[in-house]
UniProtKB/TrEMBL annotation:
GO terms for cellular component: cytoplasm. Pfam families: tRNA_Me_trans, tRNA_Me_trans_C, tRNA_Me_trans_M. Its EC number is 2.8.1.13. The keyword Heme does not apply. Belongs to the MnmA/TRMU family. The gene is mnmA. One of its GO terms (biological process) is tRNA wobble position uridine thiolation. The active site is at residues 101, 197. The lineage of its organism: Bacteria, Bacillati, Actinomycetota, Actinomycetes, Pseudonocardiales. It comes from Amycolatopsis suaedae. ATP binds at residues 6-13, 32, 125. HAMAP family: tRNA_thiouridyl_MnmA. InterPro entries: MnmA-like, MnmA-like_C, MnmA-like_central, MnmA-like_central_sf, Rossmann-like_a/b/a_fold. The keyword Disulfide bond applies. One of its GO terms (molecular function) is ATP binding. This is tRNA-specific 2-thiouridylase MnmA.
């Protein structure tokens, strides 16, 4: 097959490309330039799309003996990832930009261009297992549960997964690093990327304040309804947040307060005790079924709402208009509208299977 290897400049994508070459595919490497000013992105070997990352990717491609190109996706990244991120926070929701990037950039924009150029598949360094059985994609957790990235891939459409390759799905990160060392790849010891690549200093609140107009509102106690303070905009908060609330007086019981909900129209930020964070029901919409199999009636599953969050058992139901209701067997804390709900079916023999995903709209 003709395979386009997406090379971020990190160890995972380099080894994934190497394995694609070893498998006998006709491989071409490509690095995505995602910023018109790449020097403003996170540097120090921690990002995924800086100038130094592109150089690392090129060196890896040279060692593998494959052609290498840099494709400029900066404008599309800004519009579909950065602006979406800002808009979601302005609306009182908590987005995951990595999910959006995978969905809109790596497996929409990149795959579209790859297909137009005659490639059969795009290979990436994601830790997830993927197979196609009778033309139907089957997406599962990776063998290394600590690095599993099936969560950020669960929003991909079946047709996108049919043209995807995840060569690292059956491996553990320690083995991938050792393989990179044995292959002579300079990125073998390069640290993993962290945080949000387009927020250089990691200060999300300041990043949003520079882009969202100030809309003051009240900080309200969930139990008494008392106004505890003022703030400059709901974009500065997320459900489950404890620090930086701007409340001077301690709670009567001396316990910490947490953000329980956000109301962007009135600007109200409701705070309360940790017990108030417990969620039993999740309502979500815009469902995607990677294996083309929507839920058929109430379905026992486990759900995950953060990329590296815990899972809880649940019973989920879906409707024809793309809505999903998950009733949790035990409460889950810190669930916010805008996050992605991913449904898994436990499979002891082959790893958890991704049933589907949906965007969280409300909780109870």
């Amino acid at each position: 097959m003709r395979v386009l290897a997406a090379m971020s400049g990190g160890v995972d994508s380099a080894v994934a490309a190497a394995r694609a070459v070893d498998a006998g595919h006709d491989v071409v490497g490509v690095h995505l330039a995602l910023s018109a000013k790449p020097g403003t992105l996170r540097t120090g070997a921690r990002g995924c799309c800086t100038i130094e990352d592109s150089h690392d990717a090129r060196r890896a491609a040279d060692l593998l003996g494959i052609p290498f190109y840099v494709w400029d996706f900066a404008e599309r990244f800004t519009e579909q990832v950065v602006e979406t991120f800002v808009g979601e926070y302005a609306a009182g929701r908590t987005p995951n930009p990595c999910v959006t990037c995978n969905e809109k950039i790596k497996f929409e924009a990149l795959l579209e261009k790859a297909m137009a150029l005659g490639f059969d598949a795009v290979a990436t360094g994601h830790y997830a297992r993927l197979s196609v059985v009778d033309g139907v994609p089957v997406l599962r957790r990776s063998a290394d549960l600590g690095k599993d990235q099936s969560y950020v891939l669960a929003s991909l459409e079946p047709e996108q997964l049919r043209h995807a390759m995840f060569p690292l799905g059956g491996s553990h990160k320690s083995d991938v690093r050792e393989e990179a060392r044995e292959r002579g790849l300079a990125v073998a010891r390069k640290p993993d990327s962290h945080d949000i690549c387009f927020i250089p200093d990691g200060d999300t609140r300041k990043f949003l304040e520079d882009r969202i107009e100030s809309r003051p509102g009240d900080l309200v106690d969930a139990e008494t309804g008392a106004v505890l303070g003022r703030h400059t905009g709901v974009h500065g908060f997320t459900v489950g947040q404890r620090k930086g609330l701007g409340i001077d007086a301690p709670a009567p019981d001396g316990k910490p307060r947490y953000v329980l909900s956000l109301e962007p129209v009135s600007g109200t930020v409701t705070v309360g005790s940790a017990e108030g964070l417990g969620v039993r029901t999740i309502e979500a919409d815009r469902a995607v079924w990677p294996s083309e199999q929507p839920l058929d009636g109430p379905t026992e599953c486990v759900v995950q709402v953060r990329a590296h969050g815990g899972v809880v058992p649940a019973v989920a139901e879906a409707t024809a208009d793309g809505r999903v209701t998950a009733r949790l067997r035990e409460p889950l804390r810190g669930v916010a509208p805008g996050q992605v709900l991913v449904l898994y079916r436990e499979d002891a023999d082959a790893g958890d299977l991704v049933l589907g995903s949906a965007k969280i709209a409300a909780t109870a």
